[in-house]
Amino acid sequence: MANGFDGLCVAIFEHRLAAQMSSLIERLGGMVRSAPAVRDLTEPQSPDAAAFADDLLAGRYNMVILPTGRGARALMSVMERLHPRAALLDALGKVTTVVRGPGAVNVLRQWQMSPTVAVDEPNTWRSVLMAIEALGPVAGLRIAIQESAAPTTELADALRQRGADVASVRVHTQALPEDSGPIASAIEAVIVGQIDVAMFTSHQQVHNVWYVAERMGRQADLREAMRRVLVGSVGPTTSEVLRSLRLGVDFEPDRPRRQNLVREMARCAGELRRRKQASVAAGVDVAAARRVDLVWGNGECNGNHDPLHDSVFLRACRRDPTPYTPIWIMRQAGRYQRFYRELRSRVSFLELCKTPELAAEVTVKAVDQLGVDAAIIFADILLIVEPMGVGLSFGEGEGPVITRPVRSGREVDGLREVRPEESLGFVLEAVRLARRALHPGVPLIGFAGAPFTVASYMIEGCSSRDFRETKTFMYRDAGAWHALMERLAEAHARYLNAQIDSGVQAVQLFDSWVGCLDEADYHEFVLPHVQKLIQSIKPGVPIIHFGTNTATLLRQLKEAGGDVIGLDWRMNLARTWEDLGYDVAVQGNLDPVVLFSSPREIRKRAKLILDQAAGRPGHIFNLGHGILPGTPVDHVIALVDFVHEYSTAQHGRSG
């Protein structure tokens, strides 16, 4: 639940928008210590600009890189005072122009130019380098990089290593404030423990604060004190500087905007600060730690109170009354998140699944970012088929591929037995790591694919629209079909029980493709195997049974078992729940595409679902399926906050 800053003292070093940031922090319950760490110079100064302009007009450059909008505008202004705009435009039109973010794009547009390459925000110098390398080799090219008052050398160094001749064009548009007293005072406040949160909204601020600390002889004291302060960074460039100085970064919004930084930190500042302090007390190097390395103190558990058992999510699974409707989201860790995309640019999907530290990291970070009421371990429903011997690969953008499909009784007989502790130990270790890192009151959900959906993948070999191979196998050789389903049910029961032993508090069974069957086929070919699987799960652990396109099968899904029935977005929740009976909890069921609309429309649609549930015990809010790639993170956060806020009032009325 979002509580705001709740009286925490927040130090900001912003200069241009300090008043707006201060006002927003105060509205969100914080106390502000403002110490502007940067000063804009009234007239852009650039001793390098004249030489650069002359060389540009003489055709001596192949590429020009403009990293910032303010710096690009200053450089253009200086050059235009020296040469006619038409001549400069003609020269720039003959070279490759690379810009970072919308600010620099807008500067060129004002000059009626379009950049050759525009690197979207958020980005770092590595993002720019990747975009340049995509154009071709840089060896032998002469490249100019517009630099600001605090130049970063990493990009220039990387280009030089690749054989480019790089010139830095310094544009002095910012400087240290003439009176650095407020910065020094803020540094002292951090050191003596008067600051709870510190926010940096540019890398220049970080450099200037560090420079003032050096003049004071207090760098070591500042670095030590920052281990106890919650550090927020507006974006990756600022974060890189903070990390290079070992000041640490505890929070960075998905989009590099000042208001995003303030609003999103306010949602979780108290919890993040407690976690950081507990981690410091446990000896964790918080300046360099990954999220999964951070720990919680014993103070989060009071006396005999069991925060997991009493969590709002598990209470809803048991159909106990809750103060608000819990929400978690299928695929809440995935491609719509920047940190996930950045990670996937370095490792394949299977590598991510099979590296416990990384799988746990994305699991826990999703909870931190969204503020949801439960985590779900990052894995895939098809990991279990690889040790069975059918072969599994994931092509980029193509989905899973079974390299040796199962289409005969002989091939079913040849499947190997799955021993989860041996062949899926990486998932179990990810569960243990995630459970250790999660807040003691946030449940962790384990999951597996349901037998029908996994069998369909194994038979089809990939995704399918008509399930021709699956149904043909099922109808033509019922004996082999039931043998396959029995093997899968037993394997999944062992797998889910191993996840429970490793630390999950609930499990979900995904039957994403079962909606292709009619009632009679489900009853004959699927129901007995799912019943056996669910009956084999260790007692006392809630089971969520979810399928898509299952409006005609919901009674059968309930008969198969499960404490919670997941509903996709095609159903009216009120009528469906009444038809199922209130002796079972329900989960769902917002259309994932709604998250591409406006926050206002998201609230409207979420309210409709919450009103259909009417505050009745046993409703868990979720989408009708997983979050889609490209979904704005801001919109997901808006959904989570609305569900919490509206349902709190709703449950109060119903209580």
Structural description of this entry:
With 655 residues, this protein is α/β, with parallel strands linked by helices. It folds into 3 domains: 16-27 and 200-289, no CATH class; 41-175, 3-Layer(aba) Sandwich (Rossmann fold), CATH 3.40.50.10090; 312-654, TIM Barrel, CATH 3.20.20. Helices cover 46% and strands 13% of the residues. It contains 28 helices and 20 strands. The strands form 5 sheets. A 7-stranded parallel sheet has the order 12-15-16-17-18-19-20. A hairpin with a 3-residue loop joins strand 13 and strand 14. Helix 3 runs parallel beside helix 5 (101-110), helix 8 crosses helix 10 (219-226) and helix 24 (527-535) runs parallel beside helix 25 (554-560). The longest helix has 25 residues, at 478-502. The model has no long low-confidence stretch (mean pLDDT 93).
Write the layout of secondary structure elements.
Blueprint: E1 9-12, H1 18-27, E2 31-34, E3 39-45, H2 49-57, E4 63-66, H3 69-82, H4 85-92, E5 96-100, H5 101-110, E6 117-119, H6 125-133, E7 142-147, H7 154-161, E8 165-170, E9 172-175, H8 181-191, E10 197-200, H9 203-216, H10 219-226, E11 230-233, H11 236-244, H12 258-281, H13 312-317, H14 338-344, H15 349-354, H16 356-370, E12 375-376, E13 392-395, E14 399-402, H17 409-413, H18 420-423, H19 425-437, E15 444-449, H20 451-460, H21 468-476, H22 478-502, E16 506-511, H23 519-525, H24 527-535, E17 543-547, H25 554-560, E18 564-566, H26 573-580, E19 585-587, H27 599-613, E20 619-620, H28 633-654
Parallel strand pairs: 1-2, 1-10, 4-5, 4-7, 5-6, 7-8, 10-11, 12-15, 15-16, 16-17, 17-18, 18-19, 19-20
Antiparallel strand pairs: 3-9, 13-14
Helix pairs in contact: 3-5, 6-7, 8-10, 9-11, 16-19, 20-21, 20-22, 21-22, 22-24, 24-25, 27-28
